[in-house]
Design a protein that fits this description.
This protein is about 50% helix and about 25% strand. The longest helix is centred in the last third of the chain and has 24 residues. Belongs to the YqgF HJR family.
């Protein structure tokens, strides 16, 4: 199983795949990166995850993603960590949900989860 992650500072979207199609999994909220790591580690154990695909962006917050990946590898060295550029995935997710005519409130609840699906699906598509 592969877990896609759209890591945020307070909200993180997750997607999952056991084959060639990414599906939304859930959105988690957290007060710190440590709490996000703990929650994601729990999910990795529950779902028998053997690879995570972590979306990242470069720039000011780039260290956030690097630090998360580093800490994750320390605790779960047997789970492969793949970093995928996630530039514009949140915008794509919002545009998709607007086309589906979801309310603004629904979009805000799901935007990170849908972005995680886009991150994971782009990784899966590149492997084919």
């Amino acid at each position: 199983m592969i877990l896609g992650i759209d890591l945020g500072q307070k909200t993180t979207g997750l997607a999952i795949s056991e084959g060639r199609l990414a599906t939304s999994y859930k959105t988690i909220t957290h007060k710190s990166q440590k709490e996000a790591l703990f929650k994601i580690l729990e999910i990795c154990s529950e779902e028998s995850i053997d690879k995570i695909v972590l979306g990242y962006v470069q720039g000011k917050i780039g260290k956030l993603f690097e630090n998360f990946a580093k800490e994750f590898r320390k605790v779960k060295p047997n789970v492969e960590v793949v970093m995928v550029d996630e530039t514009l995935t949140t915008r794509q997710a919002i545009e998709t949900m607007i086309k589906l005519q979801l309310s603004k409130k629904a979009r805000q609840k799901k935007e990170h989860e849908i972005a995680a699906v886009l991150i994971l699906q782009s990784y899966l598509d590149e492997r084919d």
